[in-house]
Amino acid sequence: MEQMAGFARIAAEGAAAHGPEEALYAITRALPALLGDPSAALRPNAFRESPPPTIGAAAVAFMVTADRQHHMITAPVNFAPEQYHELVDIRLGHPGEVAKTRQPMLLRDTALHSSFVKILQSFRAGSSMFAPILWQDEYLGVLICANAARNTFGEADLIAHRGFAALAASLWVAQGGPAWMAAQDLSKLPRRSVGT
Q1: This protein's superkingdom (predicted)?
Q2: Closest C-alpha among 148, 123, 152 to residue 36
């Protein structure tokens, strides 16, 4: 019930927003508190880093650029400030896999996935979820939620996350996201083609 109440509040905030990125922030600001098992951080060996990071959760929309060569880091929560509007190669890491397959992904423990690369610079994610943002079968981007603790997210979280990705698509289009993206001067933005 809490997730449904949260969904309703977030949808209303996004609809009242003034612009596409502000609308996406309504989602990304709320996701870390709404999804996942908070007790995961209390389990032995919960974190991939020692000592545990001071920032434990993050959310973001990786929105595809007009040239379809990059994901732009959009509406980031708990990302390093220098990553704001960073352009990430559209093929990089699990966001790149979602761009290719248009399928959601749940990584309960990122250490078990040899293909996992660190794009988020605030902490090394122990658990993460990815859901494609689709509008009338057009790929717009990927909604990501990450937590420093392993096994934070499960199947029920991924189902809710997919619902938030569908909401993100609706808000992005309704708020003029594609035109906003087309107007961005990509030549001035930082770029990332590899993870760590």
Answers
A1: Bacteria
A2: 152
